[in-house]
Amino acid sequence: MRVLICEDSVLLREGLVRLLAHSGHEVVADLPDTTGLMDFLQTAEPENFPQICILDVRLPPTYTDEGIRAALAVRGRYPNLPLLVLSQYVEERYASDLIATQSGALGYLLKDRVADVADFIASLEQIASGGTVLDQEVVAQLLTRRNHDSKMQQLTDRERTVLAALAEGKSNQAIAALLFLSEASVEKYITSIFQKLGLEADGMGNRRVLAALAHIETLGTNRTDRTNP
Predict the structure, then answer these.
(1) Do residues 28 and 113 both lie within one domain?
(2) For position 58, which CATH number holds?
């Protein structure tokens, strides 16, 4: 696959380039900041257009949120372009904004938790193929922030665990192995979760995960709007 990297750390950027090349992937651009990002995407020939973009959250010049804002801009201009956001911390607000777009494949991983090269490459390929991979800490914070919502309160602890695993991109088979359950039991939990959240179980795992987290976020936003006219 063709990959675009936007990362200010020379060591990490070069490491990603070498890692991806070693794994048989092509890095079409490796940028130290977001300055030339949109220009590259706008002018890239079809055979050179990335199939996934990797962006760090904190980039020059302020090292605050340039990368995540660029990710949102890319999502707005190229909604079907898969994105993988790498971050040192959970940027909760922006993670929610990205998830709420409900378009395009998405990954959000914490750098300190990317410890296995094979897992990282597998996650990258899963996202590029249209999947969703969210770090469990990201999921935990988003769910915790909304756990006072009446619909979230209907979920049992086991259902919350299953939902978090779903959001991490795990298959039903992987969840069953993780929780020592049968796949039939996992399917029943998933059906129950989306019934309680008022979401239709349409069989499209990634879209269901995105819709669930976006729905949770929307509930909180709507409540804030009502209390702050």
Answers:
(1) yes
(2) 3.40.50.2300
